[in-house]
Batch of 2 targets.
Target 1
Amino acid sequence: EAGVAQSPRYKIIEKRQSVAFWCNPISGHATLYWYQQILGQGPKLLIQFQNNGVVDDSQLPKDRFSAERLKGVDSTLKIQPAKLEDSAVYLCANLRAGEQYFGPGTRLTVT
Amino acid sequence: GENVEQHPSTLSVQEGDSAVIKCTYSDSASNYFPWYKQELGKRPQLIIDIRSNVGEKKDQRIAVTLNKTAKHFSLHITETQPEDSAVYFCAASGGADGLTFGKGTHLIIQP
């Protein structure tokens, strides 16, 4: 597929701990998205980057979530402190020819 | 913001029959409507999309129709096969914007 790498693939933490996820849109595309997919639901957009700048972070819980994209390539998404309701799959996507392609995701379990 | 409604939540059809999944959207500015297929534990995969300047698009056994006036679009799968069993998500956006997803349809193909 359009080449989006994510790590780690799985993470288990206790509530109130912090966690970070990494994404590399291998194809090096300018636009990058982070989505949260809670079990049984569709993905929900958290943040959209265009190169290094944030285009849309209206649904990002900014009191605990943060994201950055350095040099317009890799991106990290951080949660601090985590809550039980943050248990979800965190998906990174790039944009190629007007279409969004997802990485494999990071499955986060907060206990 | 955009709101996407998707029906039905579960659809069971006999192998070889057709399946239809319907979605409505609220924002008349949306102009891009992709459909994703997600198998258990895997990433969403883009299967077909349509833009607002087109009324219908077909790719082998799958087709998508768009009615801009009524703000609804549908996915049609003909001659269903066991490998079509999955969760299907519709989504909407304004071009390169982040996607707003429906809640998903669990398609079950009965042998």
Target 2
Amino acid sequence: GQSLEQPSEVTAVEGAIVQINCTYQTSGFYGLSWYQQHDGGAPTFLSYNALDGLEETGRFSSFLSRSDSYGYLLLQELQMKDSASYFCAVYTGGFKTIFGAGTRLFVKA
Amino acid sequence: DADVTQTPRNRITKTGKRIMLECSQTKGHDRMYWYRQDPGLGLRLIYYSFDVKDINKGEISDGYSVSRQAQAKFSLSLESAIPNQTALYFCATSGDRATDTQYFGPGTRLTVL
């Protein structure tokens, strides 16, 4: 079967750094995406990694290791507004994307 | 104006009723998707379409049907709603075949009593 594993919840304090991990097992792999979803809102795209390494976009970075079937989302200088759910997703190339169950991030003051 | 819109935003219905959820997009994307979201289960794919003549079942299509009326419109129907179809439903579009980056509508919260 195909699966993506990510922690269900993570808690961190404002100003800190937090890492959300994602491991995957899929029949095909084109790339790993991350989406953010605030309560009551729609998922919004954050990043996409097709190749190994770290991609940085402002306070957010995303990492991929294809050999380990592993990636992570790194959030720096956490702000209260970063409290949300974060989904990793694998584009299998089979004309569809598989989403993980999501990690709920709580940012405390 | 929103690029991907869904109607209705909220709906309460009774078991056995037929329900249609509608999705429209102005992004000009070929790919459109319907997902349902349940707490702790993430986003699960119901149906997807790559153009007006192409409809494909996702992982949880039983009890649902779709219609792609035009490039910009993709509707999801529940022929006879049941309580375990109570969920948050999202429509999404994608125009990037290399990454399948998806853009989501605001969602429809459906309650089946």
